[in-house]
Amino acid sequence: MFSPEGPRLRELAVQVMSSVERGYDLLAPKFDHTPFRTPDSVLDATAVALRRLGPFDSGLDLCCGTGAGMDVLARVCRRSVTGVDFSAGMLGVARERTRPDGPTAGWVRADARALPFGPAFDLVVSFGAFGHFLPRELPGLFTQVHRVLRPGGRFAFPMVAPPRPGSLAYGMLLGFDVVMRVRNAVWRPPFVMYYRALRFGALQRDLVRTGFRVELHPLPEFGQRPDGSPRVRLVVAERTAEPRVGRGPSAVPVRPRPAG
């Protein structure tokens, strides 16, 4: 994080005291040099797993950031890939790293809670974004994903097994969340970024209630925990029914803006 390419402590302090959108606008030029970016090992393992389920025609990277997930989509989608994010700074960096030899790429600035698309996608992926949504917002977010998928389309995202209570990783995540909650209690606008708020049981229930059929695919590249369970799973939720909860605002389908 504090390498010559990454943000300095002062820059991070300014970013975290801003809104989520403004904070990521500021962080965008150096985001790929921080621990917040999904590691390439997770992206590669996800692409391998999705190849076994595809190929797909059109894909959407939800909360795409600087576009790392777009590289995954480019490996498994034949026609087009689209990235959506509400940070103009992150989208600017993402456009610059578009692969010219891949499927047609488009970038759209929008709030994931009100996606401006019709049912245009066979695959939606997301990497590390759920911590920016409060638990009560997730049903509405999943309804938006359900709405933009074609029947039979899939929503896929990796999930790392939670660290054991008492471990160093557990303490670090707990400490980070406590700091963020104190910050949001005394400072406005809020910066929603909670790493421990997501619980798989609640997430799975929200997906099922929204009209998804949920499957778990272990990512063997990351091995197993001492109890034999996978360290990392790919959650694959298939659109099977009309959503029953959390309908978000209506949206008009738009054509993704070409990259460049």
From TrEMBL:
Which Pfam family, any one, appears in the UniProt record? Answer: Methyltransf_25
InterPro entries xref list: Methyltransf_25 (IPR041698), Methyltransf_Superfamily (IPR050508), SAM-dependent_MTases_sf (IPR029063)
**One GO BP annotation of this record:** methylation
Q: Which CDD domains match?
A: AdoMet_MTases (cd02440)
Taxonomically, which superkingdom?
Answer: Bacteria
The GO terms this record gives for MF are: methyltransferase activity
Signal peptide start and end residues: none
What are its E.C. numbers?
2.1.-.-
Alphabetized, the UniProt keywords read: Methyltransferase, Transferase
Q: What Gene3D superfamilies has UniProt attached to this entry? A: Vaccinia Virus protein VP39 (3.40.50.150)
Annotated segments matching region Disordered: 238-260
| TM segment ranges | none
Query: Which ranges carry the Methyltransferase domain?
Result: 60-153
Identify this protein by name: Class I SAM-dependent methyltransferase
What species is given as this protein's source? Streptomyces incanus
